[in-house]
Amino acid sequence: MNVADYPDALPGPLAEFQSVTKWYGAVIGVNDISVTLEAGITGLLGPNGAGKTTFIKLLTGQLRPSLGNVLVCDAPARSAAARRHIGYCPDADAFYEEMSGRQFVRTMARLHGMSAVESRERTEQALAEVGMLDRADRTLRGCSKGMRQRIKLAQALVHQPAVLVVDEPLNGIDPVGRRELMELFRRCAARGQAVLVSSHILDEMDELADRIVFMGRGRVLAVGTLPDIRAMFAGQPLQIRIACRQQRELATRLIPWDQVLRIELSGIDELLLQVVRPDDFFRQFGELIQATSFDVSRLETTDTTTEATFQHVMSAAAKF
Amino acid sequence: MELDQAGYRTWEGQPRSPWWGCLSIVRVGLSLIFRRWVFWILIGLGLLNFLFHFAFIYLKATLSVQNENIARFLDNYKVTGTGQAYADFMFAQAGICALLLAFAGSTLIGSDYRQGGMVFYLSRGIGKWHYIVGKLLTIAAVVTIVTTLPALILFIEYGTLSNSFQYFLDNPRVLCGILGYGTVLAVVQSLLIFAIAAWVPRTVPLVMTWLGLFALLKGLADAMRAIDGNRYWLLLGFWDDMNRLGRWCFGSLDPNRIPSAGYCLAVLAALCVVSLVLIVRRVRAVEVVS
User: Could you give the residue ranges of the DSSP H alpha helices within chain B?
Assistant: First the structure.
């Protein structure tokens, strides 16, 4: 099939894993994975050995699945046609150190089949997008980690891929740079591109990802938005911090409640609770505050974050 | 979804065939070699040898106009103009090129495996074979620039500075010899250095393996022939096999001398097949686990 048969942004899934399994000899990399990637930012999370790298390599066509199919814009991921729809920004940044950033990006553009003129134009645009236009003539050896990261992103964006795969993109980037790159990913998503971000820094995902794919032990454990995933795990204990001047009295009233698993006194006026069935707890707690004279100045949940959900998903997976 | 997309333009172009990517790989590879001064020492050595021959031809042409006896005297040395002379020149250049490849192999090929640069190639719109062909063409281009191209320039210079262009018509075998020997050197050396550098990517072990392959096997071949008396042992010396095949292209190889060009061709062809298998296995290994 011709590359032109695959338009840049198709309605529906831009990439699809269909019951994909990958073995490395006797070791299983990923096990019966079925996931679709659509326009928007998808976070890929999982501990070491969860199968994230295998997932990414299968998606970018570097690995052949042992079973199942990986499709990118309806083409098999290992075909040249599919690879032209994928922009891959790997974690490793080893390339020819003597090259300038501009030459590197241009070379990658030409490997995608662009002519000299097109590659030059697209290189400038990609460098502008990552904010490296004025610094791209430095050799890669002379670039800081943050600059190298941006150059790698530019080479992944240079051919305007339908699916952008970025592995640990914010490593070594300063806070301002992080903000800029997050904006860049959002721009890509707004254009209709599917952006898959693999990261260990879970806080990044809270801010960045529209959807999360949790992986563990070679399987996809959960897929969806963070609230969706939290709803799937209604029994997940929730941490709640309450600031109240009558700290001990309030603790005494809360101890008998079924929803409260643990109470910890913190500081002079703080309570740290671990509760289940949070909806029930908040309703009952509201009634208690209305009926009594407890002076509650602050109430907050401390672990609605990706990290807390991730920990819970992982502990749930360990039971299987 | 209300982010500013000002300045963003979609690329409307049609991607060309992935085989065009091979040319990009060649361009990158050559720029890597010609950018390092270390390699220029060896390239300079080859350039010196070329300039010596170039100057000698010019000198001979100039003196011939003034005194034909001097020209006849210089012809005795067979420095240039004959198939034998071109074969000798290319043999010397090939030695320099082999040294250059020994050191450049790590940069051109080894670094892709040692530092994980392969991922940038294999995630592009090119396949495994495009990568392999691109790298082989890069090495072949280096070999051609150092051996075949200078020989061709000398051939043209010699013919142009002769009294007539009859030299070109009288010596088609020399031209075939230059192209043939150049092809043998380019094909065998590119496959061999790619295979070795892919499996032994670090510079020092690569240099030792590469030079050991030629020097040690030649020594072994000579020793076995001396012990056994069988001249077919000489086929083990791959460097000499290339030389014999090259001289056969020039028509200056004694057809009755063992081993013949056919045997050398068979050995080198087998070596190329083994190298290609090793290359494909190595690239596939990176694709499976890296």
Answer: 20-34, 37-66, 68-75, 83-105, 111-114, 118-122, 128-143, 149-161, 166-170, 172-199, 203-228, 238-250, 261-288
A172 in contact with chain B, both atoms CB, cutoff 8 A:
no
User: Is A179 touching B (CB cutoff 8 A)?
Assistant: no
The architecture that CATH gives domain A234-317 is 2-Layer Sandwich (3.30)
The answer to whether residue B1 sits within a structural domain is no
Domain span holding position B36:
19-284
Nearest CB to A4 within list B14, B32, B117: B14
User: Is residue B289 domain-resident?
Assistant: no
B171 part of a folded domain? yes
The ipTM, to two decimals, is 0.75
Q: Tens digits of per-residue pLDDT, A220-276?
A: 888 888 777 766 665 667 788 889 888 898 999 999 998 888 899 888 888 998 888
Query: Domain locations in chain A?
Result: 3-231, 234-317
Query: Is B52 contained in some domain?
Result: yes
Q: How many domains, in total, are found in chain B? A: 1
Supply the CATH classification number for the domain A3-231.
3.40.50.300
CA B241, B245, B247, B251 torsion-angle sign? positive
Sheet containing strand A211-216, edge to edge, reads: A86-89, A163-167, A194-198, A40-45, A211-216, A219-224
What does the pLDDT look like over B179-238, one tens digit per residue? 999 999 999 999 999 999 999 989 899 999 998 888 888 899 889 888 988 888 889 889
Q: Chain A: residue nearest B109 by CA?
A: A96
pTM greater than 0.80: no
